[in-house]
Design brief:
The chain is an alpha+beta fold. It has a single domain (4-125), classed as Gcn5-related N-acetyltransferase (GNAT) (Aminopeptidase, 3-Layer(aba) Sandwich). It is 30% helix and 36% strand. Strands 1-2-3-4-5-7-6 form a 7-stranded mixed beta sheet, sandwiched between helices. A hairpin with a 2-residue loop joins strand 2 and strand 3. The longest helix has 16 residues, at 103-118.
Length: 174
C-alpha cells in the first residue's frame, strides 16, 4: 500500500517530465478512452508543445501527479476565471497498475487544495462521460454534485452517450 499522504505530490509539469511511459499512456486507448485524447496520436513533440502551452498560459495550470517522485498522471486546472473565481478540472492516472487504489480521490483532494487555497477560487467544474464510473466515484467522494447532463454529447465506441457535469462550491455543505 502506498503512503499517499507523504508520497503524493502535484507539481507543475515541465518538458523534463516527459518519459517514454508518459508518451505510452497517452497512446493507450484504455488510459485515454474517457477523454478526447483518445482521438490523438501523441509524440514527444506534441506533448512538449502541450506542456509549453499550458506553462505559458494565464488561464491553465498543468500539474503532474507524482508518487515517490515518479510521474504517474496529470491534473489540468483550466479556464481559470479570476472574475468569477471559477475553473474546470480534469485528470488522468496514466499508470494503470495504480488504478483502484484511491489515488484519484487523493489527487482531486490535493487539486482542490490548490484551487481553493493557492488560486483562491470558489467554484470548480468537472465533466465526465456517463460510463466513466471511476471518475464519477472520485468526484462524489470529493463532494462534487452532479449539476447537469449534456445529452448525447459524445460518440463513444460507436454509441452516443451523455456527459455529466459536476461542480463544487468552496465550503458547500453536503
Amino acid at each position: 500500500m502506498i503512503d499517499l499522504e507523504n508520497n503524493l505530490k502535484l507539481k507543475i509539469l515541465v518538458k523534463e517530465n516527459i518519459t517514454r511511459c508518459y508518451i505510452d499512456w497517452m497512446n493507450d486507448y484504455e488510459v485515454t478512452k474517457f477523454t478526447e485524447q483518445r482521438f490523438e496520436k501523441h509524440t514527444k513533440e506534441s506533448i512538449e508543445r502541450f506542456i509549453a502551452e499550458k506553462y505559458e498560459s494565464n488561464t491553465d495550470e498543468l500539474h503532474g501527479i507524482f508518487i515517490n517522485n515518479r510521474h504517474i498522471g496529470n491534473v489540468l486546472i483550466s479556464s481559470i476565471d479570476y472574475n468569477n473565481l471559477s475553473c474546470n478540472l480534469s485528470y488522468l492516472i496514466g499508470d494503470k497498475f495504480l488504478w483502484g487504489q484511491g489515488i484519484g480521490t487523493c489527487v482531486i483532494s490535493e487539486a482542490l487544495n490548490i484551487i481553493f487555497n493557492k488560486l483562491r477560487l470558489i467554484k470548480v467544474s468537472a465533466g465526465c462521460y456517463e460510463n466513466n464510473h471511476g471518475s464519477i466515484k472520485i468526484l462524489q467522494k470529493n463532494n462534487f454534485l452532479k449539476e447537469g447532463i449534456r445529452k448525447n454529447q459524445v460518440n463513444f465506441e460507436g454509441k452516443r452517450i451523455d456527459v455529466f457535469i459536476f461542480g463544487l462550491l468552496k465550503g458547500a455543505k453536503i
